[in-house]
Amino acid sequence: MRSNSTRIALAVGGIAALVVLFAVLSGGSSNNKSSQVQVITVRNAKPVGGIKKLNYTKGDLVQFKVDSDVADEIHVHGYDFHKDVPAGGLVSFRFPAKIDGVFVIELESRGEQIAELRVKPS
After folding, report:
1. Phi then psi for 36, rounded to 5 degrees?
2. What DSSP assignment string belongs to 34-56?
3. For 16-44, what is each residue's pLDDT tens digit?
4. Is residue 88 a contact partner of residue 70, using CB atoms and an 8 Å limit?
5. Within this chain, do residues 24 and 84 fall inside the same structural domain, yes or no?
6. Which of 1, 8, 77, 107 is most deeply packed, by most CB within 10 A?
7. Helix, strand, coil percentages for the chain (3-state, nearest 5)
């Protein structure tokens, strides 16, 4: 039989392990957006609902998808990421927020801004 102090120590250790596991799975960030994949929908070469605001803290994991009815290159300025999206297609972006500031995300060949990426300092 285990003593009460042994049981308490095991319970505290178990709780601590769960807290660490949660922090690892959530990316260690207090910003829930880092674990959510946001979707930018493009129809008739325009962002549905206007320019989407993507807000993160430096160190977060930036994740978003672009669902577009037109073919174009999606350009994340500042980070200088480029990906082609086919007409009627979907393209995904996933990268760490290493640079703080405000960055335009656009349909490159059309010069059409579809989102604004804001990364605030940690």
Report:
1. -105, 135
2. GG--EEEEEETTEETTSSEEEEE
3. 443 333 443 344 333 444 468 999 999 99
4. no
5. no
6. 107
7. 20, 45, 35
Of the candidates 76, 82, 68, which has an alpha carbon nearest to the alpha carbon of residue 104?
Answer: 76
For tokens 């690892």, name the residue. 24
Domain housing 23:
1-30
For the CA atoms of 62, 64, 70, 72, the dihedral, rounded to the nearest 10 degrees, stands at 20
Total domain count, the chain: 2
What's the pTM?
0.72
Locate 45 and state its tokens: 């070469």
- Taking alpha carbons only, the member of 86, 97, 95, 92 closest to residue 60 is 97
CA distance linking residue 79 with residue 96, whole number of Å: 10
Asked whether 73 and 84 are in contact (CB, 8 A), the reply is yes
Q: How confident is the model at residue 67 (pLDDT cuts 50, 70, 90)?
A: very high
Q: Do 4 and 56 belong together in one domain?
A: no
